[in-house]
Amino acid sequence: MEILVFKTNVSSKKKVSMVAPLLTSFPTIRHWNFDLDDCDKVLRIEATGLNPDSVESLLSTAGFNCQELD
Predict the structure, then answer these.
(1) For 59, which of 11, 27, 36, 66 could close a Cys bridge (C-beta 3.0–4.6 Å)?
(2) HSE-up of 2 (CA within 13 Å, CB side)?
């Protein structure tokens, strides 16, 4: 199990609800959450064998910025 952390521009619960179906469609994602109070609007994902680029691409196609944090 690995934890991936991303900086996003998902800034409200309404926007989270737009992204939720996309994230739950990945079978390798066990759990995910957004920290909307953080200045980076952090997305944390617990997954196995998930390529960070695929998450970035997925959110990008939905119209959101997403960049993996170190």
Answers:
(1) 66
(2) 8
